[in-house]
């Protein structure tokens, strides 16, 4: 159900087999542990908790939410003894959009019947917040672009970065900002890291980091070109429809096959971010183009 990897001494990552290859992390101290994100399904959150509290035999004292999207923060409820840490905006989004979409999901999916939104008790907005866990220093800092509230967690001694969704196999900017994501990716590239734990997908090793940054920046530059080209036409959506993930330099099998759909949404959202309106289509069909950001906000 979840894949577990030991990244360094007392540092683990987890990846979902069920939903969009979403990841979580844990840093284990002598007396207590910290987890980073909570995965998509309650059974997965509980599997992480059991591993830490039953097998490693330490309680989870802190939960860091990298951002407010469901597949990163809805598991807070399963750590009643823990203090939740996040960006101030993550708290605000969970309290508004998060509550509304959880209410909807609970109606449709029994697995979420015991899930409630739990708001972060410690928040920050800028600079850096440090947490000592045994001999390790976790430093948390904003890394926006995928979303405005995304934060990353650096395990300083190991140079391991839990990037949240600032690092994904296919960048996704529907709730964020392309310029912020470009800046965040460039920042990651200069950090001298051993590993990047992406918010979705596989661990990126030291030797792969340069290419990862380069490929993701190229994708963002390519979608910007597509959107600019589309803006010069009467029906921009028609041009966006002709653009495939592959033509922008990425494979459609990424993120459990969701890449083509995420790409389509990226183009539409970027058009709106750049031109302040949704792109018109020649055969406009309300159903086909209905823009429902709730449905995919979990990524
Ligand atoms: Zn996300």
Tell me the fraction of residues in β-strands, as a range: 15-25%
Sequence stretches where pLDDT stays below 50 over 5 or more residues: 291-299
Mean pLDDT: 94
Query: What oligomeric state do the depicted chains represent?
Result: single chain
Spatial shape:
globular
Share of helical residues:
25-40%
Strand order of the largest sheet: 1-2-3-4-5-6-7
Q: What is the rounded Rg?
A: 19 Å
Number of strands: 13
Q: Specify the structural class.
A: alpha/beta
- Number of helical segments? 8
Q: Give a list of the ligands.
A: zinc ion
Cα distance spanning the termini: 18 Å
The SSE string, one letter per element, is EEEEHEHEHEEEEEHEEHHHH
Q: Biggest β-sheet: count, sense, barrel?
A: 7 strands, mixed
In short:
34% of the residues lie in helices and 20% in strands.
Word description of this protein:
With 299 residues, the protein is an alpha/beta fold. The chain is 34% helix and 20% strand. The protein is built from eight helices and 13 strands. A seven-stranded mixed β-sheet has the order 1-2-3-4-5-6-7. Strands 8-9-10-11-12-13 form a six-stranded mixed β-sheet, with no helix packed on it. Helix 4 (178-189) packs antiparallel against helix 5 and helix 5 (209-231) packs antiparallel against helix 6 (236-242). The longest helix has 23 residues, at 209-231. The two termini are 18 Å apart. 44% of the residues are buried. The structure holds zinc ion (ZN). Zinc ion (ZN) binds at residues 67, 69, 146-147, 165, 299.
